[in-house]
Design goal:
By secondary structure, the protein is mainly α. Helices cover 76% and strands 0% of the residues.
Length: 406
């Protein structure tokens, strides 16, 4: 007597996090944002060499961040429909060109052109690299976005340190040495692009054609996106004032040297990089909304104290502010991706672009304000911006998706 036993299908193994890919894309993000922050760190040098006003200093920031903000949503929308993995090395090449132009600039117009090349490079880089981070996440989207973001924030922190060690003692043309880092970034991104092309382009193209429903009604999506953009405005307008003029602030108020001031800027930006690691993984566990709420509104007391602190407490407060405030962005991006599933590139481009735009606009507006009043007045004025974090109460609570959204 024989019997047959029907074999039950084994449960599918959960997707794994591709840490090597995340490591490569994070390292590339570090290189990209380090080269951006070199511009920021060079402001005291450029101001002296070209006799710039604070308004012109803000215009440099406005140029590269506005260029990035205008192109990123367009790039993201295009790559949602037609994934273009090999655009990543092209974006890094644009940033490399901007760096070389900056090294050999002889007038303010060339500095602005260099800033524009850097902005275009960022516009190409961020949407597709954010998509790759999500694809490599194994479903742990917050963790992946945090690892991706911490690379960028670490690069932003390294820029002032590199400027203090190399550019201040050796001059503007020493910026050209950092083109070696850009070449390394191009090599890394070529490898990442190959992984993307071989494993995910076809699947991503099919997923882009499938309609995916939002977990909340369309009217709620529109309200939530508006709230998120307001939070981005408050965060990046504040960060623009804090970071763009931080070296001038500590030089004027506490009499520090340029190198010492850049070291303090590095401390603030490094604290921001560490904070980036928190927002994504915590959001994976407890939800995005509490992280967004706590990171922006929670920084308000420290921001209000900062303009009245001495040098020691200024350093302490900027560390706390950078750590807490930077945890918001990863949670905001992943939350928005969950609100509008299937549009990873467009959402990433919109929020990265808007963040860049607000940072650039903030630097330009606050630079003009500093010319007409003082840097100290600017720091007192922007201290109230984190209070806008109260609007996070309007965000809907959404359940985390059970499957890996692409």
């Amino acid at each position: 007597m024989s019997s047959s036993v029907t074999a039950l299908p084994l449960p599918a193994a959960p997707p794994r996090v591709a840490f090597r890919v995340l490591g490569a894309i994070s390292a590339s993000h570090m290189i990209n944002d380090m080269m951006q922050s070199l511009i920021l760190a060079m402001y005291p040098i450029l101001k002296g060499d070209f006799a710039l006003s604070f308004g012109q200093v803000g215009l440099i920031t406005l140029t590269y961040q506005l260029t990035a903000s205008l192109f990123q949503p367009v790039v993201g929308l295009y790559t949602d429909r037609r994934p273009t993995p090999y655009s990543l090395p092209v974006g890094m090449t644009s940033t490399l060109c901007g760096l070389l132009l900056l090294a050999f600039a002889t007038d303010f117009g060339t500095v602005l052109l260099a800033a524009a090349f850097v902005g275009v490079g960022s516009a190409i880089f961020h949407p597709e690299s954010s998509r790759i981070a999500r694809m490599a996440s194994g479903g742990r989207h917050g963790l992946a976005q945090s690892l991706f973001q911490v690379g960028g924030n670490t690069g932003s922190a390294i820029g002032p340190l590199a400027a203090a060690a190399v550019i201040v003692p050796f001059g503007q043309r020493s910026v050209a040495w950092f083109s070696l880092a850009a070449l390394l970034g191009i090599i890394l991104l070529a490898q990442v692009s190959r992984w993307y092309a071989h494993h995910h382009v076809a699947a991503a193209a099919r997923a882009a054609k499938r309609p995916m429903a939002s977990p909340v009604p369309q009217r709620t999506v529109i309200l939530a996106i508006g709230v998120l953009l307001l939070l981005i405005f408050s965060k990046y307008f504040y960060v623009a004032g804090l970071s763009s003029f931080y070296t001038f602030y500590v030089i004027e108020k506490f009499g520090l040297s340029v190198q010492n001031a850049q070291l303090h800027l590095f401390i603030f930006l490094f604290a921001s990089a560490l904070g980036t690691l928190i927002g994504g993984p915590v959001g994976d566990r407890i939800g995005r909304k509490p992280v967004i709420w706590a990171s922006i509104l929670g920084v308000a007391p420290f921001a209000l104290l900062l303009p009245h602190a001495n040098l020691f407490w200024t350093t302490v407060l900027t560390i706390v502010i950078g750590f807490i405030l930077s945890s918001a962005f990863s949670a905001i991006v992943v939350y928005a991706q969950e609100l509008i599933p299937g549009k990873v590139g467009m959402v990433s481009g919109l929020f990265f672009g808007f963040a860049f735009g607000m940072g650039g606009l903030g630097a330009a507006v606050l630079g003009v304000l500093a010319d007409r009043t003082s840097i100290d007045f600017v720091y007192q004025a922007i201290a109230y911006l984190p209070l806008l974090g109260i609007v996070a109460v309007l965000l809907p609570s959404i359940a985390r998706p059970s499957t890996v959204a692409r």
